[in-house]
Amino acid sequence: MALTGLDIYKKLPKTNCGDCGLPTCLAFGMKLAAGQAELSACPHVSEEAAAELTEASAPPIRLVTIGAGDSALKVGGELVMYRHEKTYYNPCGIGLVIEDAMADGEVDERIAQTKAASFERIGQTLKADVVAVRSASGDGAKFAALVGKVNDALGLPMVLMAENADVMKAGLEACKGANPLMHGVTGDNCDAMTALAKEHSCPVCVSCADGIVAAADITAKVEAAGIKDIVIEPAWDSPANTLKELIQGRRAALREKFRALGFPFIAFPCKQTDDTYVETALAGAYIVKYAGIVILGSLEAAKALPLVVLRQNVYTDPQQPMQVEEGIYPINSPDADSPVLVTTNFSLTYFTVSGEIEASRVPTWLIVMDAEGLSVLTAWAAGKFVPDRIAKFVNRSGIADKVGHRKLVIPGYVAQISGELDEELPDWEITVGVREAGDIPPYLKQMTA
Amino acid sequence: MVYSPAAEKYNGEIGEVVLGTDGVKVGGQKVLPFQGFEGEAGNHPIIAIEVLDVEPEGWPEALVEAIGQDVLGDPVAWAKKAQDEWGADAVCLSLVGTDPNAADRSPDEAAETAKAVSDAISMPLIVYGSGNVEKDAEVFQRVGEVLQGANAVIGPVKEDNYKTIAAAAMGFGHVVAGETPIDVNMAKQLNILMTNLGLPADKILVDPSTGALGYGLDYTFSVMERDRLSALLQGDKVLQMPIINNMAKEAWKSKEAKVSAEEEPAWGDAAERGILWEVLTGVALLMGGADVLIIRHPKAADVLHTTIGLLAG
Questions:
Q1: How much is the ipTM here?
Q2: Interchain pair B221, A300: CB under 8 A
Q3: DSSP A89-133
Q4: Which among A319, A344, B245, B250 is most buried, taking Cβ atoms within 10 Å?
Q5: Which chain A residues are within 8 Å of B226, Cβ to Cβ?
Q6: What is the mean pLDDT of residues A311-325?
Q7: What is the pLDDT of residue A5?
Q8: What is the mean pLDDT of residues B217-238?
């Protein structure tokens, strides 16, 4: 049962020494209760109290690291059911599965797909960041060869899939130090797999055809054996059941602090359909609703791009607007005579405005000012998109070197600043543009007609 | 430790709204989206195919090919194809041609098109205006009148024109789609205004404004989740209406859905990418609580239907 901050406080030294980094023991207790601090930050807590508090102070969903080095994937560690309550923290892993029964050409194709599934968007690299390697043949040597090949070629965190402990052992030995997720701990192979996981100190994935009720029993066993890093596969017999268990699992962990389900989940839409479109749609549903890792059958670029962008949308902090970089954005190959439009660097503002300019096919210079990621009206109200700042930006942007004219179009929503901006930018003629981005194409066409 | 799943504590339900004259219903959920495992999941979300009143320009080649160049300038043939060949649940006629900044078609012309489409299909008809508040008010007085008896959905109704359009809906027996800019309180406010005018709650759909995948989808999704939590958990009656997402124009405006593989070779096959951009926009909206999705691509309709079936179980 979850303890409140006050319950925890009663077991702390109550000296307010500040060694934990927080001013008071009560504040520390509150942080522990919210899963935002580790008990180990307090050097003075008694052993007895520490034992009692370990349960309550552990984060409700464990943060599990898969893989090693720079490419390591951290999943779990989530604190809310709905992203608007705070944010989701650790973007889910997305990857494809490669099997040892596949022909060499097919293996190479999937490795190439994974490498190619990498895209730049709003200053972030969005990519396939995990790969599953599955033993379909049941042959340890074959599995080991494939694991070694995939590891060498990609260096990405791997999910090793084999239910037979000997096959798994061969795979693990082919990628020492790679810290793969061992998939396939069931009621039957639990002891052997747990021993392997301890020997190689790897995270394990508990996977029961009967779903999370049965999985909870096994995670408890695995944990008792000393393995802390666990991932759970929910029921896979139907997408409806997978979604149900993803939701119920998250709820059990966060609301009821049910420890045996307090782990990230992995979903395999590749097991549920042969239709690549439907598979992508199911993966999308699992990305939105609580999967920590999603594994698909293939990841052609046309499939990978929408999936990684969906992940970016879901895991964006709702309180931190996405920003684009300040600067000059040439659209439709503008020249020295093309119009200059100014707007703010809120990503949505930028995308909407640039999209409409593109659609207009009118060559245009869009200059985007750093307004701390706020939209035009909000930035104006917050004093970030105001005449003196805009003037400084126009001067530092270098746009004057790109165009022969000195005409600047400002968004219609800040029409009231045009007079003052005129004074701040004496060389420039200020024009008030349209209020809605949708009206930009006719406006630009008329302007340049 | 034996795990027994705890159900969410519900204190409200989404009302049912009848669309058209053939018994199609949306809403009726007593649980959060796709959580039929803990209560009455209500009606499945439906897929409406968008047809335009004027021939579209600048649509990606693969989309035009999938729809058929022959029907693009003919909303009646287009709508019949959506009904008979693509398995759509409804048709959305978008009167983009009435936009004063575009073809500026007259209310009478719009009404004629709407009537012809309505007469050609047996499934529910949704009619969306250009979004220009003054023009839409004029257009829907005529369109509402000629569609009397069709129990169509008309929209977008906004705070600046709700009096005229909601009155037309009441007078001629239609459902309205009330649009507010991605904001829970503004959605509530518009619903209150419209019900105060005398429009019954079961004649209202909520249009939360839709951002496409990569273009504000996160905002729309979270506002929809908050709408649904308010309606179902807090029992907020003024939000207990089904949600309609007018998503097609947004999804297909996205660069990622539009550009050719020659322009962006690293983005893969353009036809597949466009379909998936629309599908994943739709999937996220479904998870957020969409009851009606307005989409364009026949293949996306097919994939979304299959996906709804699989996830609803």
A1: 0.98
A2: no
A3: -SPPEEEEEEETTS-HHHHHHHHHHHHH-EEEETTEEEE---EEE
A4: B245
A5: 82, 84
A6: 90
A7: 84
A8: 97
